[in-house]
Amino acid sequence: MKRLLNILPILIALVVALPARAADESAKHEEENLDVKEIIFHHLGDGYGWEVPFSHVYRIPLPVIVRAEDGSWHCFSSSKLTEVTVTEDEATGKKHEELTPVVHEVEKNGKIYRFYIAHVSEHKNKVVEVFPLTPAQQAEAKAEALKIANEKGGDPDHMVVPGYVLIGHDYYREYKTFDISITKNVLALLIAAVLVTLMVMSMARYYARKGMKAPRKGMGFMEMLIDFIYTGVIKSSLGAKAPKFAPYLLTCFFFILTMNLLGLIVIFPGGANLTGNIAITLVLAVATFIITNVLGTKHYWKEIFWPDVPLFLKCPLPIMQMIEVFGIFTKPAALCVRLFANMMGGHMIVITLTLLIFIFAAFGAAALGASVVVSVLFTIFMLLLDVLVSFIQAYVFTLLSALFISAAQESGHHEEKLPDGKVEEVPESVEA
Amino acid sequence: MELFTPDFGLVFWMFIAFIVLFVVLAKWGWPVILKNMDHRADTIDKGVEYAQQAKHQLDHAREEAQKYMEEAQAKQAEMLRDAAKMKTQIIEEAKRQAGVEAQKVMDAAKVSIEQSRKEAELQFRNEVSKFSIEIAEKMLRGQMKDDAAQIKLVDKLLDEIENN
Questions:
Q1: Which residue, A151, A168, B10, B55, is most buried by CB atoms nearer than 10 A?
Q2: Is the whole-model pTM more than 0.80?
């Protein structure tokens, strides 16, 4: 803390001095309207290329794999879908680079396919196959756009018309491709999977080689985590059935933790908002759902369809059954949304705090300087908090999955009413 | 809203990646790690238990040794006492026997002395009687040189016999 206080004056001095230099530069930027929402959603969402630090336009190209309307598969680099246009400001002589989407034409089997990253379309930021329109169809589409603009309001030249995509000033017919491209998120996902595999397999190899010797340093930390989850969560909730479900739960924990932490690293191997993407958490939640219900015991299903409640709650009107069946789906849904919302929220706050600098820049140098200090401090604080949240959310997901699975593993002998009304309690470890 | 609609491509890859990751780790990763961790934990538990037992035994052994020592000391003391007793006994016995022997020797000596004395006495008496007879003979011879003295003696002896 003392060191931080020492750094602070230097930081402030730097920040106050900086705007003077930046003042002339900001003149140009002021012209551009800062679309905060667009920037936030861009950072939270997926992309066909991976941004590199200190550049707005250059991206690491990734393979795009799509199926066109006629069923043919196409695979090409994502760099073909964008173009860097350099415009020179005549007054200052400064170059301004901009990344613009372009139509990529592929000729295959004597047919031309056109692909485009849609912007003004129902499928925003997705690769669509586009088809040129005849002048008559073009006029029809523009008339449709005008109609929608009149109804909902807005610029008739930038109207989203269902089934069409706007490129430049012309509408094209669009087809949403069947898209399994290696996007930024998919690549981050694969990197996370490889990292987890490396971590776990090196651990397993260590045990195979060194046997009983206790691991040190990184391995020791890894083992501490494994032990924390295995004994603290899995064994305590699943008892003797722990070894059966431990591989799934441990894989879940380490995969989520790795993805969470990778998401907090700003540059290349990280930076993808993976666990803050509902597709990822959905798959994880569905996996827990399947394991819970497919491997559920008879007693678990009996408790759902004939629970131990007064008869009027379940007989003529199946109230309890409805609640229980609803519960089967809400539990994994809550898992899915909890992880997604927590991680996405963390990313969103960090981006918003960073954007505060650019928002306040419009109010002059003093406001800019102050906002830089405040938002950098807050951003660091939020990132540190996110490290904690990353761990907590991975832990919570694993813990709740373990609890749901253990609830479905009860054999019914757990609490049996004895004739004298006492409840027989079988220790969990004794339970088969 | 695009944040809340799962993208098919990502779901597809996530599904594949997760299944592959799970299968690989469940087959070659976790079982090895968990087995080794459990094994090591068991070994450590056993080691601690063994150490505790050993310590207990060690403590116990010290006590036992102490007990044995005490016992040995007691035995030693007893043996010493016995030995002392026996020594005095032996000495007593020896003394007694020596006494008896001495008595016997003395008795034998007494007897032999007595016998010798008696023999000596007898011999002495014989000697004395012999000498006295010789003396008497000599005296008698001196005195009995004449008949008158002989008659007188005879008379005297006869008187004596008559008086008896």
A1: B10
A2: no
